[in-house]
Write a structure and sequence with these properties.
The structure is a single chain. The protein has 64 residues and is an alpha+beta fold. It has one domain (4-58). The chain is 27% helix and 41% strand. A three-stranded antiparallel sheet has the order 2-1-3, covered by helices on one side. The longest helix has 17 residues, at 29-45. The mean pLDDT is 92.
């Protein structure tokens, strides 16, 4: 069973609600991590501190 890695953007709102948006998927964790770090650089450069890119492992269901 192969692990699929999801690149997600997590945003914190002023009301304390978190929103999560799926941005991309990867078959290799380091590729996802590099993509997250690269995209985060753009947010950091613009002083956007309420958004964060991160990778989440998605495990496909076994065939029945």
């Amino acid at each position: 069973m192969n692990t699929v890695w999801a690149l997600v953007l997590i945003t914190a709102t002023q009301s304390g609600i978190f929103t999560i948006k799926l941005k991309d998927t990867f078959n290799y964790k380091p590729s996802c991590q590099i993509a997250a770090e690269g995209r985060q650089l753009f947010l950091t450069a613009e002083y956007i501190d309420h958004k964060k890119y991160t990778c989440v492992a998605l495990h496909p269901e076994k065939n029945k």
